C-alpha cells in the first residue's frame, strides 16, 4: 500500500499569501488595462476631431488661395473698383439711382 501512496501525486496546498498576492495583481492588471483602453479611446476620438479640423483648414486655405489668384487678375480688380468705389472708365458716365427723399 505504501507503493500506491508514493506513486500518487501529492496535492500541494496553496499558500494563502500567494493567492492574495496573485488576486491583487490580477485586479491591478485589469484596472490598468481598463484605464489604458479608456485612454486609447479618448485618443482616437481626439485624433478624429483633429483630422476633421485639419481638413476644414486645408479646404479654407485652398479657398483663400483661389481668392488671392482671382484678386490678382485685372478684370476682377476693375470689377471691384466699379462695384465698391463707383469708378468709371474715361468717357463713361456713372448713372446712379436717385435716393428717395425723406418727408417730415
Describe this structure in words.
With 104 residues, the chain is mainly alpha-helical. It is 71% helix and 0% strand. The chain has three helices and no strands. The protein is rod-shaped. The termini are far apart.
Q: Oligomeric status of the shown chains?
A: single chain
Low-confidence stretches: none
Helix content: over 70%
N- to C-terminal separation?
129 Å
Tally of DSSP helical segments: 3
Measured on Cα atoms, how large is the radius of gyration? 41 Å
Major sheet size, sense and barrel closure: none
Structural class: mainly alpha
The total beta strand count reads 0
Order of helix and strand elements from N to C terminus: HHH
pLDDT averaged over residues: 83
The global form is: rod-shaped
Our estimate of the beta-strand percent is: under 5%
List keywords for this structure.
single chain, 104 residues, mainly alpha, 3 helices, 71% helix, 0% strand, rod-shaped
Amino acid at each position: 500500500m505504501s507503493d500506491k501512496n508514493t506513486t500518487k501525486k501529492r496535492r500541494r496546498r496553496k499558500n494563502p499569501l500567494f493567492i492574495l498576492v496573485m488576486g491583487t495583481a490580477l485586479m491591478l492588471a485589469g484596472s490598468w488595462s481598463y484605464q489604458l483602453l479608456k485612454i486609447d479611446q479618448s485618443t482616437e476620438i481626439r485624433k478624429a476631431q483633429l483630422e476633421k479640423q485639419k481638413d476644414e483648414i486645408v479646404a479654407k486655405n485652398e479657398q483663400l488661395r483661389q481668392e488671392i489668384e482671382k484678386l490678382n487678375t485685372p478684370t476682377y480688380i476693375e470689377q471691384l473698383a466699379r462695384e465698391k468705389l463707383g469708378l468709371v472708365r474715361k468717357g463713361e458716365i456713372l448713372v446712379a439711382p436717385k435716393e428717395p427723399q425723406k418727408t417730415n
